[in-house]
Amino acid sequence: MNIKEIKEIVTLMNENEITEFIIEREGFKLSIKKGPQFERAAVITQAIAPAAPAIPIPASAGQTGEAKSEPEGTFIVSPMVGTFYSSPSPDLPSFVQVGQEVDEETVVCIIEAMKVMNEIKAERKGKILGVLAENGEAVEFGKKIFKIGDPSAAK
Amino acid sequence: MELSTEDRIIHRLVGAQGFISGEEIAHDLRISRTAVWNHVAHLKETGFEIESFPHLGHRLLTLPDKLLPALVSHDLKTRLMGRSIMYFEETTSTSDEADRLARKGERAGSVVIAEKQTSGRGRMGRVWESPVGKGVYLSIILRPALPPARISFITLSSAIAARNAIQQCAGLRAFLKWPNDLLISGKKACGILTEIKTEADRIDYAIVGVGMNVNQTLFQLQGLPEATSLRVETGVAVSRLEIAKAFLEAFDHTYTILMEGGYKEIIDLWLGASETIGRRIIVRSLSGEKSEGVATGLDEDGCLLLRLDTGMTKRITGGDVRIV
């Protein structure tokens, strides 16, 4: 059985609203399940015989529901050792708030090292999920300072 | 730098020892004698004192007290700094202008100069008082090939340069307070603020903004108890033009050392100009945390080493330093 055949099975299942499909052959078993927790058919393969070649999961069959837990966030990290400032001056509001949509050019904070002020930009489109440093905190190189997720519109 | 016709006439007048004929200028610049005459007339309007006689030509008597690009660039002994000079009678902040230019790709070494800043910046939203014609307010665009972790050396290099320029032009003893405050008689005469833009792990550009109090009088410094000016300290007016040029030349020198990897040399130069090392100091962080002890030196990153009373040494990366 090759990937093309598996794809055909998945397509047939989708077309005919079949939720489960199991096939067993010599040294080989394929089980495909589709349930309410899966958006599309998920493919679970299992080799019974040790000699059987591993069958890769076809990409077109979609990701398994279990593989993804909560929405993945990425982090903005400090490019240098310094002091973290969340606002341009003490009496001004923060550059960004949790929940705010940002783009590549949005300034999220300033890191100061010895009177060098480094305006840190988000460098990607997304939504601020968390501020991980306190105003005035000393941060190390590579410290995660913001958690940023995908923009709302992309969901 | 690219000079306008008028800038080139200024250079000829400044460079001439005595009179220079209109015909000679016209010939050198390949323009008509009428054009020379018109430019000279315009220069007189803008504050150049020039005497003109039919058979002798033109002679420059005094320069206007302005940091015109043609004056700053004349005989400026630099490799990088001042390759091009942008001039403003008035602006919000020379660093704002420099930032705008750098974003559009302006090359390293370009300098923005203003006679007056309406919102000269200090750290954390503080204001640098920038009255017209009294100080030197300039910003330099740099594109240093430094890892961001080494960026503080820009601060040290520029501070050394400001100190050397002031000693050279005003004959004053100036000292550095970590990292880059320039003190004369314990008061601040110069502030330097560097802003950088990083892309991933590299510095896209740095803007070094400098404000020097040159000819402010004691009266004008009222309300700024911790500030002084070169004029207050020397008792006489000091040439802003000379200070500006000396600073660009000195910074060109220290920046070259830095770009050649001379971190150790910069630290040694800084230590030699410092008023911090060996002194008892209090460092206050933004969050209000205070550390007190004796400043013992700089580490290889330029951070200040503070020996606390407990005997432990603390590495200071930021905050306000007060000498006690």
Describe, in plain words, how this protein is organized in 3D.
The complex is a heterodimer of chains A (155) and B (324). The longest helix of chain A has 14 residues, at 3-16. Chain A has 1 helix and 11 strands; from the N terminus they run αβββββββββββ. With 155 residues, chain A is mainly β. In chain A, the strands form 3 sheets. Chain A has a 4-stranded antiparallel sheet, with no helix packed on it. A 4-stranded antiparallel sheet of chain A has the order 8-7-5-10, with no helix packed on it. In chain A, strands 1-2-3 form a 3-stranded antiparallel sheet, covered by helices on one side. In chain A, strand 7 (107-113) and strand 8 (116-121) form a beta hairpin. With 324 residues, chain B is α+β, with helices and mostly antiparallel strands. Chain B has 3 domains: 5-62, Winged helix-like DNA-binding domain superfamily/Winged helix DNA-binding domain (Arc Repressor Mutant, subunit A, Orthogonal Bundle), CATH 1.10.10.10; 69-271, BirA Bifunctional Protein, domain 2 (2-Layer Sandwich); 280-323, SH3 type barrels (Roll). The mean pLDDT of chain B is 92. The interface between A and B is medium-sized, with 28 and 33 residues.
